[in-house]
Automatic annotation (TrEMBL):
Protein name: Adenosine deaminase domain-containing protein
InterPro entries given in the database record: A_deaminase_dom, Ado/ade_deaminase, Metal_Hydrolase
Coiled coil (UniProt feature): none
High-level lineage: Eukaryota, Fungi, Dikarya, Basidiomycota, Agaricomycotina
Required cofactor names: Zn(2+)
Transmembrane stretches, start-end: none
Annotated GO MF terms: adenosine deaminase activity; metal ion binding
Residue intervals of the Adenosine deaminase domain: 27-376
One matching Pfam family: A_deaminase
Record GO biological process: adenosine catabolic process; inosine biosynthetic process; nucleotide metabolic process
Chemical reaction(s) catalysed: N(6)-methyl-AMP + H2O + H(+) = IMP + methylamine
Similarity annotation: Belongs to the metallo-dependent hydrolases superfamily. Adenosine and AMP deaminases family.
Naturally occurring in which organism (per UniProt): Pisolithus tinctorius Marx 270
Amino acid sequence: MATISGPSAAALHSLSPSDVDFLQSLPKAELHAHLNGCIPLQTLTDLTEHLTLPADTTDEIAATVARLKSGLTLNDVSEFFPLFSAIYAITSTPSALGRVTRDVLDSFLKAESNPPPGFAYTPAPECSYLELRTTPRATAQMSRYTYLTTVLDEIEKFSADQAALIVSIDRRMSDADARECVDLAIALRAAGRRVVGLDLCGDPGKGDIATFEKHFKRGKDAGLGLTLHIAEVCGNTTAESLALLDWRPDRLGHATFLSDEHKALFFADLLQPGSVPSPATESNSRRNGAYKPCIEICLSSNLLSRTVQSLESHHIQYYLANDHPISICTDDTLPFRTTLLAEYAQLLAKPPLGLGLGREQVKRIAAMGMEARFVQGRVEVK
Ligand SMILES: CNc1ncnc2c1ncn2[C@@H]1O[C@H](COP(=O)(O)O)[C@@H](O)[C@H]1O
């Protein structure tokens, strides 16, 4: 059962039953959900109780699970990433990883039997299509290949128009690790497995993106869609963001601190020199001859990790005002205690709980998310 609290819960509570029905009826794509960040709390608790865990990790795991149960408060986004060392200890075997993947897929694609505590609406599937992303990890019990095939085995129990995998590269990875992950993504895709894209993620304060450029280029050449976490914190330099934009990703995660000047430069409705795509790789992120990568917007994540102070000052306002493609996403439902429905509620709810958008505009935003799916590789041509 989903647990919702904080800003998205407040927005969802404020909606009428008819508004909730409306949001549930929209075809929606979840394009930015990290597997280990979206584990249902109940699944995590079950696994913690039944797994035999290394003695030196039990205290840390118990403390992290207790924090997640009581509701996380972060003073800064940098406090967020260390949480994953405990979660990773729980999902380090093929059987635990398989169970977690199954439960995460179900939480997005199947209707729950009950609404979240405190809510009375009739549960419906959170989305029509889920592009789940995860970072392949080699552990004592599995190789990166086993990690990916374990996740893919679960994803492929759903049809191709319901679920697909994006392989994440963590900014902390070495060149050799990134190479192995991208090689696996390319090989699995070539073998007919449902890998549709590559993601650059991880603590935005870590790593040197120059390490990864050649690997993302190889992935792109092999037909994988590219999505990059970009300018997530104010410490991400303009030089780094410009370099990432030069890789011509199809989608961008967060893009919180891209300057208006650079947004105008990159996303203007002007033909960008050198950006004309070949017909084979053309994507619908290029409209009117301009480069328009869809921005994956994660409202609760940004508010709770304190990279954005309020909905009023959220960068979604810029993208809405400039008619730039966006997609509404949850990022990590476990720590941010949200659901896709509750994220959409923040579009429709009246200020200050939400943005107060009209139904037609919300419908259009949901359609933009559906259009930005990688589906089978690069974004479909429109
Ligand atoms: C707050 N926003 C975020 N920004 C950047 N990276 C994030 C993230 N939320 C999650 N991750 C990345 O996803 C991993 C967990 O899922 P997977 O092990 O891949 O399934 C985290 O370790 C982190 O690298």
